[in-house]
Amino acid sequence: MSSESSTSSPAVWKAARTNVAVFDLSDRTQIEITGSDRARFLHSFTSGDIKRLKPGQGCESFVTNLKGKVVAHVFVFCTEQSLWLDGTPGQLEGIVGHLGKFLLIDDVQLIPRTAERGDLFVTGPLAAALLQLEGSLAVGGHVTRETEGNAFDIRRVDLLGEPGFLLSIPLARIDAVKLSFRALGIPEGSRELFESLRIEAGYPRYGVDVTDDNLAQEVARTKQCISFDKGCYLGQETIARLDSLGHTNRELRRLQFSTDIVPEAGHQIFDEAGTTELGVVTSSTKNSGDTATNQEPSVLALGYLKRSALPIGTVLSLVIDGKTISGRVL
Description:
By secondary structure, the chain is an alpha+beta fold. It has helices at residues 9-18, 38-43, 92-100, 127-130, 174-183, 191-201, 222-225, 236-245, 288-293, and strands at residues 21-24, 29-34, 58-64, 70-78, 83-87, 109-112, 117-123, 142-147, 150-156, 164-170, 188-189, 250-257, 268-271, 277-286, 299-306, 315-320, 323-329. The chain folds into 2 domains: 9-199, Probable tRNA modification gtpase trme, domain 1 (Gyrase A, domain 2); 249-330, Beta Barrel (Elongation Factor Tu (Ef-tu), domain 3), CATH 2.40.30.110. Helix content is 21%, strand content 32%. The protein has a 6-stranded mixed β-sheet. A 6-stranded antiparallel beta barrel has the order 12-15-14-13-16-17. Strands 3-4-5-2-6 form a 5-stranded antiparallel β-sheet, covered by helices on one side. Strand 9 and strand 10 form a beta hairpin.
């Protein structure tokens, strides 16, 4: 492991890509679901195959509404006693409010845990070694560990394109764990750098890149989030119909533009000539990798594009302050 503890963006960017780094994501949404009907209940309102999960396993999933649109985007982790939902910040009220409408006679309890537990995200090629994970922990897999009499959960989620692990820890213990990482020389990255890296990796954030206006397949995480073998669930009819048609009218894509001006969310995307609108930017950032690798500055973005512009390499453009800026689909 590197002994460098600098938190400068280039140093942490390099550590996250080639070694290991940690990010404090303690505002992520965490919900525990208990009760004897929990698996059957959650299975009926999510696109993932919840019933197949065994303790120690997990999956990425959408919570969908009757129209097949995305109410929430979460990871589901199965334990002996409960199911845990972990997702990007700000989803607590939406998830509890949506699922709570369907709680009638089911033995199910929705227990918010966001205010009492935090997430530290450990990521990079050497993250598993740092956490002393013997063998391979599949994406969605999780284990419970204990240190100084305090239990915490390690959950495999590759948010940034490298092996990544969410450490779900009581909030009162977060600072102590961060200090232990610092003592080992593990650099801690800023929230801004995490956002840059997640955009680079193409991982969408609910409320920014995904809302309840989006059909599930538009988010372009069908392989990760949607099971076509499971039984009935809310929104399945629309999702299955889209699958039989073979496409949506728009999808989320990773983009790169040759500029150091970061476009705001909602900025229009055009064709190469700058005359035909093709889509819209949802999130964007200066490319941290440019500084770390001494490249010309560029902007990375996520955005929805019309079907004609989806292929990799499609040339795009932005118009900023009257200037046409070239870009492409990654």
